[in-house]
Amino acid sequence: MLNAVLAFIYQNLIEAPSYHLYLEAFLALWLFWLIRQRKKAEKKKRLTQEEEQLIINAWQPKPLVDEEVTNMESYDNGGIWGPITGRPGKTVEIDGEKYLNVATHNYLGLLDSQELDDAAEQCIRRYGVGSCGPRGFYGTVDVHIELEEKIARFLNLEETALYSYGFAAVASAIPSYAKAGDIIFADEQVSYPIQRGLAASRSSIIYFKHNSWENLQEELEKQRETDKKNAKKAKTIRRFCVVEGIYTKSGTMCPLKEVTDLCKQYKVRLFVDESISFGVLGRTGRGLTEHLDVDRKDIDFISGSLEHSCASFGGFIVGPSYVVDHQRISGLGYCFSASLPPLLAGSGIKALEIIEQSPEIIQDVQDKCVYMHQTFMNKLTFFRVTSHELSPLKFLSLVGSKVLAYDVIKDLIEQVIIHVKEHHKIALVQPYYLESEHELPLPSIRVSINRLLTYKEIDSIAAAIEDVSNSINLYDSVISNIPTQFEETKADMIKSYEAYLKWKQQNNGITGKEALEQDEVFEPLEIAEDSAPKKIADLHSRN
Amino acid sequence: MKPFDNGCIATNSSRGVATSSAKPTTSVPSSIATKMKIDRSPVKQIAKKPALTNGHVVNHNHNNHVIKPKTKVDLQRVEVKRREQRKRAGESFEECTLWDAFCTYLCYAVLVLVGYVNDLVRPRTATEQNRDGYVPLYASFESFYTRHVYRRVRDCWNMPVGSVPGKYITLLERESKDYGWTFNMTGKKVHCINLGSYNYLGFAENHGTCAEAAIKAVREQGVGTCSPRKELGNAHHLDELDQLVARFVGSEAAITCAMGFATNSMNIPAILNKGCLVLSDEKNHASIILGLRLSRATIRVFKHNNMRSLEKRLREGIVNGQPRTHLPWEKIFIVIEGVYSMEGSVVRLPEILALKRKYGAYVYLDEAHSIGAMGPNGRGVIDYWGCNPKDVDVLMGTFTKSFGSAGGYIAGSKELITLLRRGSHAHAYGTAMSPPVAQQILTSMKMIMGEDGTDEGVKKIRQLARNSRYFRQKLKQAGFIVYGNDDSPVIPVALYMPTKIAYVVREMIKRGVATVGVGFPATPLVEGRTRFCISASHTKEMLDHALGAMCEIGQQITIRCSRLPIRKEEILYDDSENEDVE
Ligand SMILES: Cc1ncc(COP(=O)(O)O)c(C=O)c1O
User: CA end-to-end span of chain A, whole Å?
Assistant: First the structure.
């Protein structure tokens, strides 16, 4: 091979006319001269020691923390609640008072379960607290393997990678597959851990409209057009799609069936985050795939968290071995972090066992989800339920949110929460978002289901919010805070409010069906395509 | 036919290579070439200018273990003396010889070649089901490496453990019938001395004060928290933990997080922004690098623990300003670790602080492996060097190691912590720390601080220092190539070849010692090593057993080929701290 090349060059040299050789020699010399000139010029441009010192002396760093932050206080627990004493279960004790807790993600009420504590205690007596090493270096305890196998068997998939933190699971998993140059299609309302994962992957991110598979299809089609122009490159670009089962930021449900079909059609790999829906949805708590009857084989991995319905700790990635095994060598948060403390793995195993052995608790929690949804729909005049009826998280957004300033809504909602705390002893929470969110959601009240709540307690939550909204004249505050450019809306709102008051006078005491009718009268604002009315109709059919 | 699918063959070939590699390194004087090599070795070069600028200073005669009678001393002098002793405490990092590098490359080359032949003759690849027509999920080299190189030595990692990772550890034996593709449990248990876990102070225990306190926490507060601290996850014990950590490290305030990795990767983006320049040590941990990348600051890397390289980068950075626009940087951060877990080196903090003052930079110090484990009071490298904690702008550390728990903290000025309470991703979205985990930290930290009314903590710190020195000196005396600082509890021993790494790990386990092997991609290709993590719970007998085993193996595969002068006098198992300060 090399010989042939040399021979070829030699042959050419001999055969070339001499002027050609001269010309080439001249060109080479000229090139050499040019490069030298460049270097000289650069040397001239370089600063002298003194000049450098001048610049260095002149440089002034900004303070470590900007002034404006220095003047702000920051509070935990929403700035409303003091630190918790004891167990944050169905009731939570704060500053010597007991409150009904619908603020934390304890959907199945397992945090109050003695069995989980027993499992944890047994593990401490066997393994101590920490695992003192990453999974690779003597940090793989047998309970980890057991938990991994259990999750995989539970979802009927091949393999699980267990992470020591729910946040880290999906945030590490995405960048271990998607690299620079790849394309990720993501729902615009994906949760913050997913956003971090997307950022760390350095792929190009294409956001599609929330829950709109039509829009996803458009984006995919657009990409297909681009691919046609450069077919060779397209063959090396991996494509991914990331959605959540139940969205952490809105409590809405993903149309997974349609998304899966699209992904299959366009040969896009699909990642589904079931942090919220795992253990709640489906007939036996196996998540959204069970609820919508989607074949889990069509999904490349499902990520989840043991920190919500399982009331333990850790996150996981579950899927076919071909995909998940890769986590064990390149999931950053998996390889370079100490493994989950064994006691937390132990309680995770117990939680899964409880879910597996008693599907009736899943049915129970779902019934309560629906009941809570209906109750909020029927009883709340000033809040609109924007989440799915089966979602364990109920997002209550204030009427008029769309025209009010962000801080005003936040303050008004805080007022409601404070008064509910004072007068009704119920712990509500306003979800906390950082400003760096991709789509900063509007402030809202988030109520989480807890299986241990009684139907009466659910009624009392709705009644409390309604009562407080009336007693602090919430609606007046809303109307008076509407900025001037929305005069029309304001007039509309006042009109419909008057209609509502009249209606209320006529019907003392609201019953379910009437409330629904009332809902139609009293809602001039923000009837988004997919929100209330349609769902109310659904509810009707259910009843 | 199963010609190459054999882990054993790899080991055998390594032995072959290893014996030949012995020649030039041990039978030194004969060849001129080797002499020249020794001349060029970094050891000598640096010996000329030991004062500043390089992490690889070697100094051996600082510590002659003669017990002197203790007299009354004035405390200040003791402190000064201690500090001087630290400065002298050597750090060694012998470079790989050309021959070793050649052998290592050869070893990889053989593995790759065999892999190719293997693929040709009998391809065995895990294939993906029902993903026809999709773009392949993995780059082809990546999967080649895992299939043909990593698979052969896969049994040396991820070993299942069936006990507390204390001074002993129980491994559950696995076997592979298909050369590393899959493993089955044999049901047998192997009891080993644990030199692999980060249990520096020996707080990983399943009984005693810490464990009982943790169980009490489970009973009272449950296991989960189900909420981030920003929403409704903050509890009294977490506030207490924040304050205790601040007191422990000597800063104004602190914030804690439930995972050490996330403490870096989810807090750094809240501190840095796009207009910042970051000077990052080349050996920094993955979590730091991820955090820096997410912060979108400009990252420049300087040579490991090399002050000259750092200063050069600092000057360059300030002079050139931001790329393209040449605007001056908003802030400059020096990001370093206390003890580097793969190198065993200790950061040269006083010099870094001097540079920081000179150029007006900020320092971010990750004390994951040093907090609790270094310094006479266990307060990390700051304590070790006798620096002022207020001089370091951001103090980070984890609870996974010395405290036998999980999680991490960031400590610093009140303003910084306020900033993090508002903007930290972990604080806003990550679930709050589990009560028993927090309780373990509270109990063990109080013990280290002596607030439990015993001197248990101080004893542990002393014991760890003694164990580390003894084990390291002994290894050096036996002629192993030992990396890092004399005082660090992390003790890496260079092995270079992947086959040797696997051999050492397997043989040590056979001899009842659990150690960690580290190779590519966690280290550079030619710098494979095994690593010992010393714990305060080890006794002299345990260490001696491990040393004996190591020497035996070293004899077989020629890894005792350090070219440094070897100390002749016997190494005593003593509290060097006390004895040097007469
Ligand atoms: C320097 C450094 N930072 C952070 C971490 C991560 O800590 P954790 O294991 O608690 O997640 C480690 C652990 O290996 C480390 O070495």
Answer: 82
Q: What is the DSSP letter of B329?
A: P
User: Does A73 reach chain B within 8 Å, measured CB to CB?
Assistant: yes
Secondary structure letter of residue A537 according to DSSP: H
What radius of gyration do chain A's Cα atoms show? Answer: 30
With tokens 């400065």, the residue in question is: B87
Please give the C-alpha separations between residue A386 and each of A510, A524, B162, in angstroms, as whole numbers: 21, 16, 48
Rounded-to-integer distance, Cα A452 and Cα A364, Å: 9
Are the C-beta atoms of residues A371 and A494 closer than 8 Å to each other?
A: no
Of B363, B452, B436, B449, whose CA–CA distance to B402 is shortest? B449
Low-confidence ranges of chain B (pLDDT < 50): 1-73, 577-582
Please answer whether residues B514 and B192 qualify as being in contact, where contact means their C-beta atoms are separated by less than 8 angstroms: yes
Alpha helix (H) residue ranges in A81-165: 114-127, 142-154
Q: Which two tokens stand for residue B23?
A: 């020649």
So what's the pLDDT on residue A523? 43
Q: What is the pLDDT of residue A529?
A: 35
Q: Which residues contact B63 (CB under 8 A, 6 or more apart)?
A: B469, B486, B576, B580
In this prediction, residue A530 carries a pLDDT of: 37
**Which sign does the torsion angle of CA A100, A105, A109, A112 carry?**
negative
Q: Residue B212 class from Cβ within 10 Å (0-12 exposed, 13-18 middle, 19+ buried)?
A: middle
The total number of residues shown for chain B amounts to 582
String of DSSP letters for B149-160: IIGGGGGGSS-E
Residue B329: which of A58, A42, A47 has the closest Cα?
A58
Half-sphere exposure of B128 (CA within 13 A, CB side): 21
Rounded Cα distance between A273 and A310, Å, is 16
Please tell me which residue of chain A has the smallest CA distance to B421: A74
The residue behind tokens 């960048």 is: A175
Q: What is the pLDDT of residues A338-383, one digit of tens each?
A: 999 999 999 999 999 999 999 999 999 999 999 999 999 888 888 9
Interhelix angle B498-510/B7-26, rounded to 10 degrees, is 100
Question: What pLDDT was estimated at residue A126?
Answer: 94
Residues of chain A with pLDDT under 70: 1-2, 5, 44, 68-72, 507-543
DSSP alpha helix (H) spans, B307-455? 307-320, 349-359, 381-385, 414-423, 425-429, 435-449
Distance CA A13, CA A294 (A): 69
pLDDT tens digits, residue range A34-62? Answer: 888 888 777 767 778 888 888 888 888 88
Q: How far is A95 from chain B (nearest CA, A)?
A: 10
Mutate to test the interface with A, among B142, B226, B441 (most CBs of A within 10 A): B226
B571 burial via Cβ count (<10 Å: 0-12, 13-18, 19+): middle
Pick A81's closest partner by Cβ from B137, B232, B318. Answer: B232
A421 and chain B in contact, CB less than 8 A: no
- Mark residue B217 as left, alpha or beta (left: phi above 0; alpha: psi -120 to 50; beta: remaining): alpha
pTM, two decimal places: 0.85
Local structure of B274: helix, strand or coil: coil
Beta-carbon contacts of residue A112 (< 8 Å; ≥ 6 apart):
A87, A89, A90, A106, A452, B222
A200 touching chain B per CB within 8 A: yes
Residue A121's CB: how many other CB atoms inside 10 A? 21
Nearest to B205 among A128, A196, A267 (CB): A128
Torsion sign (Cα): A358, A360, A364, A366: positive
C-alpha torsion A34→A36→A41→A44, nearest 10: -170
DSSP calls for A250-314 = T--B--HHHHHHHHHHHT-EEEEE-TTTTTTSSTTS--HHHHTT--GGGSSEEEEESSSTT-S--
